[in-house]
Amino acid sequence: MTNQVPGHNRLRVTRAGIDTYQQPVVYMHRDCEVCRSEGFAAMTRVRLDVGTRTLVATLNVVIDDRLGLDEMALSEVAWRLLDPMPEALAWVRHAEPAASAGALRAKVFGARLDDAQYLALVQDVMESRLSDLELAAFVAASAGDRLDHAETTGLTRAMIAVGQRLDWGEGPVLDKHCVGGLPGNRTTPIVVAIVAALGYRIPKTSSRAITSPAGTADTMEVMAPVALDLAAMRRVVEREGGCIVWGGNVRLSPADDILIRVQRPLDFDSDGQLVASVLSKKVAAGSTHVLIDMPVGPTAKVRSEVAADSLGSRLAHTAGALGLQLGIHRSDGSQPVGRGIGPALEAHDVLKVLRNAADAPADLRERALALSAALLDMAPGSSAGTGLERARSVLDSGAALAKFLAICEAQGGFREPPRAAFTADVPAATSGRIFEIDNRKLAKLAKLAGAPTSPTAGLETGLRVGDTVERGQPLLTLHAESRGELAYALEHAVTLQPFVLGEAP
Q: Is residue 406 domain-shared with residue 426, that is, in the same domain?
């Protein structure tokens, strides 16, 4: 805290009760003494000192009487970070320019940044010294292939350096990750159960949905708690060998969560940032052997073999520089996996596979077995080519189910996934054969129905490329938690048409 004249540049701290996600925001009246004397305007970056804590936040200006001239209000994330005492006062001043501002501008104009520049930039990200506008500029400047191999590695190292790292001691620590873009591809809970049942450690941190109808953490959360802290996560893994927890709560690569906040509305793909995001979290989680599931298809995230080659090369280069053993499993990304798309619907599919139910989705089961086999074959001491047999054995015997339920209990207790209150079929307008399925349109429909915010919302379909349908036959079934959301999704289902039909043979 700086020494200030008593009463100058200080305001009483209140709570705004406004969720600004991860962006710290402070609210002040335009006529308050601090705003007038400092020349603050909307979107000004200001430094707040409250007790022993300091925060840089973005200013929003209030023009009516809902905020007093002697007070300032904090958004929820700012309130949590500052954690003020009752009746606390905040010292307010202009924030100093971020140390990385020059490097950021250089990147915008196409310059290469070195490891030190990326570390400075990521440190400023963590300290909220960069506004969301500046972060958006960095995300845009890094989009596509604008980060080379060395820059990707530098960004990854920086993201690791500013977070915590887990150490599991001697022995292999296995992990898998899917690059995404394939609705219903919820293999992670099955893979974790299989691998842990065979005695390996697999501490899986997973994300919530970014642009999809469900992330692994969203699906897992309808069956067990996922918002565990590091200590609780460690207890689960030490007890059961594996876990499936929300990565945002353990904050192993916290800078990534901040960048994702900006990436999400921009919807920019960057191979470099994707690699840094994935591998920084794997290193931070203490993983030694990582399998990357890379679905390839025209409406998946990776849309061609050329793109897959490029991303695979970047992943391999950075993993090698970090000392990670990496495997890449390319898979068919041309159509969805399983039947359900949405947190609870995907959870039902997962449980059917683990329970060896007669109506379990065969494609989800086989994908999970293939990924488990590839990961097991990577483990030190494994006999090459035995992974599939070992994986199938623990799945068929029920040992994988028992391990999954034990992990759920260790995380706080298992619960059966719920069902949506409202459903409606979407019929085929014409007869024909399915020639193509647009994954992005299916995902959009599931989101329009309310997923993932409404856990039981989404859609179900068992149709695949090559299937024939008759006019009036259901193409999919929408699930929603309210009549309004269901009607909204039904309205858009008419125009989205994720199934491309041609003449039946």
A: no
Element counts in the chain: helices (H) and strands (E): 19, 18
Q: 343, 420 in Cβ contact below 8 A?
A: no
| pTM for the whole structure | 0.88
- Domain membership flag for residue 21: yes
64 catalytic? Reply is: no
Summarised one tens digit per residue, pLDDT across range 76-109 is 999 999 999 999 999 999 998 899 999 999 999 9
Domain count of the chain? 4
In the structure, what pLDDT confidence band is assigned to residue 2 with cuts at 50, 70 and 90? very low
Pick the closest to residue 22 from 288, 307, 265 (CA basis). 265
Rounded to whole angstroms, the Cα distance separating 179 from 310 reads 13
Domain membership of residue 3 (yes or no) is: no
Domain boundary among 161, 194, 212: 161
Q: What one-character-per-residue DSSP string does 240-284 give?
A: HSEEEEEHHHHTSSHHHHHHHHHHHHHT--BHHHHHHHHHHHHHH
SS3 content of the chain, % helix, strand, coil (to 5): 40, 20, 40
Q: Where are the beta strands (DSSP E) in 377-443?
A: 422-427, 432-437
| pLDDT tier at 270, thresholds 50, 70, 90 | confident
Q: Which of 70, 115, 145, 269 is catalytic?
A: 269
Q: What is the pLDDT of residue 255?
A: 86
For residue 327, what are the β-bridge partners?
A: 291
pLDDT tens digit sequence for 436-473: 999 999 999 999 999 999 999 999 999 999 999 999 99
- Mark whether 308 and 454 lie in a shared domain: no
Contact 416, 456 (CB under 8 A): no
Q: Is residue 167 part of a domain?
A: no
CATH of the domain at 427: 3.90.1170.30
